[in-house]
Write a structure and sequence with these properties.
Elements lengths: L7 H38 L4 H35 L6 H35 L1 H4 L2 H27 L4
Length: about 160
């Protein structure tokens, strides 16, 4: 019995899965570099004053978060394209992959549109405003937001090859 030739969608599944893996790996690597790796370097190893290091981190986050959100959106599009090309993962794997990527994108957009402008407004008020409990609570919320995005990206990355 002869095998039927693969459809166009079936031929696209492997390149789409590779692209999806690449985008998620780039997103995860960039988030690790900007999140847990860079602040200790600026604050401790370079010996910068906390206010100066915080301003540098603000600029870094302001410039990299749109890129990270774009990568998360691209990962979500790659997920949609994989299903459109004919991949049929188990429902819970698809839900986990979609959910993790959407959660990452949502957290990054929240960070970009809420936390970055609010924290930068505090920088304009001076060092006494940065020492207050309101700024500390805001900063902890932004750290939690990025931590959730990083965990969601790791989950999506771990599930990218599963069907």
């Amino acid at each position: 019995m002869a095998r039927r030739p693969p459809t166009v969608g079936e031929r696209l599944l492997a390149p789409l899965a590779t692209l999806h893996l690449f985008v998620l790996a780039a997103l995860f690597g960039a988030m690790v570099a900007v999140g847990p790796v860079l602040p200790p370097i600026l604050f401790h190893h370079l010996g910068l004053e906390p206010l100066v290091a915080a301003r540098y981190m603000g600029v870094i986050f302001q410039r990299t978060t749109p890129l990270l959100a774009g990568l998360a959106a691209a990962a979500l599009c790659a997920e949609v394209l994989r299903v459109a090309a004919g991949e049929r993962p188990r429902w819970w794997i698809a839900a986990l992959r979609y959910g993790a990527t959407a959660l990452c994108l949502g957290c990054l957009l929240l960070f970009l549109w809420h936390y970055i402008p609010t924290i930068q407004a505090y920088h304009g008020r001076g060092p006494e405003a940065l020492a207050g409990s309101a700024f500390h609570a805001l900063h902890q919320g932004s750290r939690r937001c990025l931590s959730i995005a990083l965990a969601a990206t790791a989950t999506a990355l771990a599930m990218v090859g599963r069907r």
